[in-house]
Design a protein that fits this description.
Blueprint: E1 8-13, H1 24-34, E2 36-41, H2 46-56, E3 63-67, H3 79-89, E4 94-103, H4 111-128, E5 132-137, H5 140-150, E6 157-159, H6 166-174, E7 178-181, H7 192-197, E8 206-208, H8 234-245, H9 249-264
Parallel strand pairs: 1-2, 2-3, 3-4, 4-5, 5-6, 6-7, 7-8
Helix pairs in contact: 2-3, 4-5, 8-9
Length: 270
């Protein structure tokens, strides 16, 4: 396959994960060689948000980050946490609040605490005029209800790693949300419904992400020896999505990159 000159933005990945500790520089080099121009590191706790911001400073212009508390950690959230997120968010390298939302699939925090944590971060984003990077799994009704109450006050919303139904997709679109698609779309076991829905996402609302080190695309050939996902696999995800939409890869890449730059108000690559 010919190498494309198209540049991409990976809107969600976890480079602070321990699996990247020994070879991060090589991971970044491979991503850059593959055409991944910028990467947005996901904050899932206050500590990981701090670590992401610290890593960003090592790769200025190449990386940005978010600051947030994932629903799995909602039981740890309190007023001090909110204050710490606000302090992190004033850094120009922090481009969104999140990852926040609801996860009723695993329920690692009680649902009422997840809802309180989610609401607090949405209001923080509204107060600061920042985009939100959202997580929802098996919690659509509660999630959409909470979001609906504040969405008019939010600058921009992306539902990260969308894996929901047609009804949930269209409800998010009606609220003005953008949609993030990961390598889930490459999974023949679980991704069938998402593959059918990808063409229904307006091109100006679509962004792509790896969620590395998670969600390694199952259809990569040759099959990698490691199950660790990397940002260098983002072009593969883009090509799969382009094929499902019946458009060429360059068009998909240009659109999703433009969407990401606009959504997160990204600086030019350093």
């Amino acid at each position: 396959m010919a190498v494309s000159s198209a540049q991409l933005v990976d809107i969600g990945l976890n480079l602070t994960h321990r699996s990247f500790q020994s070879d991060l520089a090589d991971v970044v080099t491979r991503a850059t060689s593959a055409g991944v121009e910028q990467m947005i590191l996901t904050g899932t706790t206050v500590q990981e948000s701090r670590e992401a911001l610290s890593l960003v400073s090592t790769y200025p212009g190449k990386m940005l980050s978010t600051a947030g508390v994932h629903p799995h950690h909602a039981s740890e959230f309190d007023s001090e946490t909110l204050s710490e997120l606000k302090t992190l968010a004033v850094n120009k390298e922090v481009v969104a609040i999140g990852e926040c939302g609801l996860d009723f699939f695993r329920n690692l925090s009680p649902q009422d605490q997840q809802q309180s944590c989610f609401k607090a971060q949405l209001h923080l984003a509204a107060e600061l005029g920042m985009p939100v990077f959202l997580h929802e799994r098996d919690a659509h009704e509660s999630f959409a209800s909470i979001l609906q109450e504040v969405v008019a006050d939010l600058r921009a919303v992306v539902v990260h790693c969308f894996t929901g139904t047609s009804a949930s997709l269209h409800r998010y679109l009606e609220m003005g949300c953008s949609i993030g698609v990961t390598g889930w779309v490459c999974d023949e076991r679980r991704g069938g419904e998402l593959r059918e829905l990808v063409p229904e996402i307006p091109l100006d609302r679509l962004m792509i992400e790896t969620d590395a080190p998670y969600l390694l695309p199952r259809d990569l050939q040759p099959k990698p020896k490691s199950t660790r996902n990397e940002p260098c696999h983002l072009p593969h995800i883009g090509r799969v999505i382009a094929g499902l939409r019946g458009i060429d890869y360059e068009t998909l890449a240009r659109a999703t990159t433009d969407n990401a730059r606009r959504f997160f108000d990204l600086p030019n690559k350093g």
